[in-house]
Specification:
Elements lengths: L9 H6 L4 E7 L2 E13 L2 E9 L5 E7 L3 E3 L2
Antiparallel strand pairs: 1-2, 1-5, 2-3, 3-4
Protein name: DUF1918 domain-containing protein
Organism: Kribbella deserti
């Protein structure tokens, strides 16, 4: 994990306006993304995010809060 990226606390995910620019850990690295939705279930907070993969294709995925950080 990149020492300069700190995953957000679940409370931050709850407070961010939608959409919000964030950084996500996906595909083995941290990358810029948009938080477009969030949901809370018995396992915790999850965010629906959009980001570009290594090939430049846009990906929409649901990630746990510990894989989402506030944008720097």
């Amino acid at each position: 994990m990149d020492k300069f990226v700190t995953p957000a606390e679940p409370e931050l995910i709850q407070r961010l306006p939608l959409p919000s620019h964030v950084t996500v850990f996906a595909g083995g690295k941290w990358r810029p993304a948009w938080l477009i939705a969030r949901v809370h279930d018995p396992e915790g907070w999850f965010g629906t995010v959009q980001f570009d993969d290594d090939d430049g294709a846009e990906v929409t995925a649901q990630l746990p809060a510990d894989q989402i950080a506030a944008a720097a």
